[in-house]
Amino acid sequence: MKRKKIVLLGCGGIFAVFVIFIVVSFSIIFFKNASIKKQALPVIEKFIPVVSEWNYDNCKKYLHPDFSDIPQEKMQLLFKKLATLGKLKSVGTPQLINYRTKLAFSGNGHSEICYMVPAEYENGKAQIIIRLVNEDDELKVCNFKFNSDLFLKTHAKCILPGRDGSP
After folding, report:
1. Helix, strand, coil % (nearest 5) of the chain?
2. Strand pairing partners for 90?
3. Helix (H) or strand (E) holding 142
4. CA-closest candidate to residue 82, choices 116, 58, 62, 56
5. How crowded is residue 37: how many other Cβ atoms within 10 Å of its Cβ?
6. What is this structure's pTM?
7. What is the pLDDT of residues 82-97, one digit of tens each?
8. 111 close to 99: Cβ distance less than 8 angstroms
9. Residue 116 above 90 pLDDT?
10. Which of 23, 25, 56, 166 is the most buried (most CB within 10 A)?
11. Is pLDDT at 123 greater than 70 in this prediction?
């Protein structure tokens, strides 16, 4: 009978330690998430006007180091295409799309946060999707994408000649 009590107390103790560990882990993640969300908005507010100058070199300080693996010529070509939007006229309120934390037992985990930002340019409206990654307590843009009807129109003319009455 005493042996059963000892075994039950041991199992109960292990379970209690496990529950405490889970609660502490989720609390740490929750508070870290709130901190990253507060850090993300100022980075986005600074990045959009800079990227909207359509100069890749000016954006580099905001970009994740992985962008350095992309050939300079490809980035220049991308920015040339984006420049068809024209000058930035206004920026809407950033909307959170998703947030995730990748944990690793090695301690090399990181957090990613993604926002959609509506913007208006002189040649049309766009939605800017910006994904930020938190590494070494610094947020960097790891991905950005411009969605605009302007790009659909120019792309359609390239692949569908004759749709607008031309030969």
Report:
1. 50, 30, 20
2. 120
3. strand 138-147
4. 56
5. 14
6. 0.70
7. 999 999 999 999 999 9
8. yes
9. yes
10. 56
11. yes
Please name the residue that has the structure tokens 């000892």.
6
Statement: residue 130 has pLDDT above 90: yes
Buried b (16+ CB within 10 A) or exposed e, 76-102: eeebeebeebeebeebeebeeeeeeee
Mean pLDDT of the region 110-128: 93
Structure tokens at 23: 């609660």
d(CA 39, CA 133): 11
Structure tokens at 101: 């934390």
